[in-house]
Amino acid sequence: MIRKLLILVILLLSAFMALGQRKPDPLYKAAQNSPDTNQVNVALQTGRKFLRPAAPRKNELDSALKYIQTALTMSTAIHATEHQYRALALKAEHSFKMHDYPKADQTFTEVAGYYHQSGAQLKETAIWDRYADIIPYNAAPLLETRLKCVTNAYNIYKSRNDRLKTSQALGRIADVDLNMRNYDKAERELLAVIAESKALNYRKQYYAYYLLAETYYRKNEVQKHLLARIECVNSYEGDPTHTIDDGLLYYYCLARAYLKNKLYERAIQYYEKCMGICVQLNDRQSYYQCVAGIVNCYTDLKSFNTGLTALRKYSKGYRPQNRAEESLLLFAELKLYNLLNQLRNAEKIIPAFTKVYNELYQNIRKDSNFYGLDNFVEHYDPLLKYHIQTRQWDKLAEELKKIEALPQEKMLVVTKLTIFTDRFKLDSARGDMLAALRGFQRIKLISDSLTNQDNSQQINELEAKYASVRKDKTIQNLNSQSVIQKSKLEKINLQRNLTFAGILIAITLAGLLYFAYRNKQKANLQLQDKQAKINDQNIILSALVKEKETLLLDKDNLLNEQEELLTEKEWLLKEIHHRVKNNLQIVMSLLYTQGAYLQNTDAKEAIRDSQNRVQVISIIHQKLYSESNVSFIVVADYVSDLVRHLGKAYDCNRRKISFRELLDPVKLDISQAVPMGLILNEAITNCIKYAFDDEGGEILIDGRSIPDDSFLLTIADNGKGLPAGFSMAESTSLGMEMMRALSKQLGGTIRIEDHSGVTVILRFKIFHSIKP
User: Fold this and answer.
1) How confident is the model over 538-596, as pLDDT tens digits?
2) Which of 160, 285, 460, 591 has a CA between 20 and 30 Å from the CA of residue 478?
3) pLDDT greater than 60 at residue 25
4) The pLDDT of residue 23 is above 50
């Protein structure tokens, strides 16, 4: 130990001796001897290098100040006034990064005043622009100062009649107004910037469109927000000098806008496009933000299994490396497990989820990002939903209290709606009906305010298509102009050649004029005859053109009528499914009411079985009403809904009965979906009732398409098996009779096997199916 201390002391003494023997800085030596402007420039460049980082360390700030003071000393000694004020500007920047904002403002203003008095307007604007650049765009206490800087620069450019610079300065003013929440003013300014950029044929309009979209988003004008995002991407792609970093931001924002407008397929398309750029830039956090967005799309589409498959696909081989990236992955996993009712899988990741988000919670109040709070609440909500599903009300109250402690005045309306909904569920579960009623009224008020935005989906689609068509038309017009210019050049060359040929022909024609004069009268008569024929043909052609226009108009009217009839047919079909579903719900309510008055256990059980059978058909009609296709249902989604219903009806969580679903993406016609669903209901119900003891077990539902256009459905349990001597052919129970009859209706076969539990196997041909 003593030996190590001696070595350390020797090393420290050597370092101090080396420092004492270090040669003095040449700049200091020059400042004392014979300074000149070149040495001043070197000192300024060195000081600027130490100030270049966004958050320089203390030693860097000290070094920068040393060289700035050296530059001031030398420039004062040689009376180099220009260099002196350049050094003062750098010193003002040093004061700002030392957080001495009053001193920085005083020095910057002094330097700008010097250039103003000397008439150097461009240098004055450079000072105001530099001052504005070092102020963070979201530093609320300094926004007034930043507004002063950009306004001064704007006034100078405007006085010089520099239209492009004036437009760009106005865009910077709009940026400050946006962060100061002056949304209407920012909107007007940005629209003026875009109009001026178009008039000047300035291609980088996407910066203004990006800020305009941000303005509409914060004003909750979802439709205008989407259109501005589309214009932003179109402008970005139309600029051959664009950078890939800008594309990452613009594609991600457009994907989120499509998601907010419920255009999920387009949202997924741009999220995947954005992910490709993230891989190129190795931006993992943005990559996982896109993955979370894709999962949100599939959950809104009710395609939970597809969302889980996508999550595993995109996260494979590209693991998160920090808490922020890990939080996005955990959010997506927990949300999907909740929706799929896979609560055991959800329970496994709860500790990791809680640990990560508790760390993020400590810093969320310091996050200056406008969307920081909204993103945190959205990503934290699956934990609250898990406590609701598992009825852990005390834990829900604890977590909800943490979320409600965050500043809600900085949240968007949609985020507040999420918090209010969770509070309403907690109050209802605890029996606090007065608080629950107040919460419901608040939720209803917010939901009504968002209804108009939801109803504008079709308008958004049409306007997005219009924007795309307009872009294609612009490209076509540019190509047409190129062809016209080429044609003009060819015409000029042809005219030149014809001129020379005309001279030669004129010489030749001089000898023929005599003969031409003699034949003039005869030629005139022939021409008159031909003119009469041409006039007749023109009259006939005019009549044909009018007839053609009439036919085209009739054709357009017929096409419009056909489209209206098709739309009416689709809505009528949806209305039929909706009414059938409502009637089935009435039947279920009647059965439930009848069951409440029954005393006999077998009768009650029969009533409940009948309710489940009616629910099988009701789920199908609900699917057909809510989906865009009114003729087919997706087997995977339908089976998931049926399993969740039966799991709740028979309290499978308490009985430790779990479900495992392995289903191919196949769609069935309603004529086959109904009998298949009834068979599936009978098989699963029998497994739940008779297969397991108190220890519980697992039920497997396996559905796959096989090469001969058939569907093979297997329902298997790992329970106690069939009783001795059981035969499906000899069984006279209602359930078995229904399964045999329904399999014949499907034109298929059904059999029951007993191997480590009961296995029901149904096979039938698929008619009118659609395989994605």
Assistant:
1) 888 888 888 888 888 877 778 877 777 766 666 666 566 666 656 676 776 777 677 66
2) 460
3) no
4) no
How far apart CA 614 and CA 111 sit, in angstroms, is: 82
CA 484, 489, 492, 493 dihedral sign is negative
Alpha-carbon gap, residue 467 to 227, rounded angstroms: 8
Q: Span 147-154, mean pLDDT?
A: 92
Residue 21, φ and ψ in degrees, nearest 5 = -90, 0
Please give the C-alpha separations between residue 452 and each of 230, 414, 492, 626, in angstroms, as whole numbers: 21, 14, 59, 19
- The alpha carbon of residue 485 and the mean position of all alpha carbons in its chain are separated, in whole angstroms, by 42
The closest of 614, 602, 634, 645 to 705, measured between CA atoms, is 634
Q: Which residue has the tokens 């357009």?
A: 556
pLDDT tens-place string over residues 649-670: 888 888 889 999 999 888 888 7
Token pair for residue 649?
Answer: 């009806």
Residue (of 301, 303, 278, 280) closest to 291 by Cα position: 278
Hey, how many other C-beta atoms are within 10 angstroms of the C-beta on 22?
A: 8
Which residues, in sequence order, are CB contacts of 159 under 8 Å at separation 6+?
121
What separation in angstroms does the CA of 25 have from each of 31, 35, 262?
10, 14, 65
Structure tokens, 151: 């306004």
Distances (CA, A) of 171 to 156, 160, 648: 15, 18, 57
Q: What percent of the chain has pLDDT over 70?
A: 81
**If pLDDT is split at 50, 70 and 90, which confidence band does 484 have?**
low
Please name which of 139, 116, 137 lies closest in space to residue 128, comparing C-alpha atoms: 116
DSSP state for residue 770 in the 8-state scheme: B
Residue 725 DSSP label = T
Q: Tell me which amino acid residue 114 is.
A: Y
Q: Cα(81)–Cα(87) distance, rounded to whole angstroms?
A: 10
pTM, two decimal places? 0.53
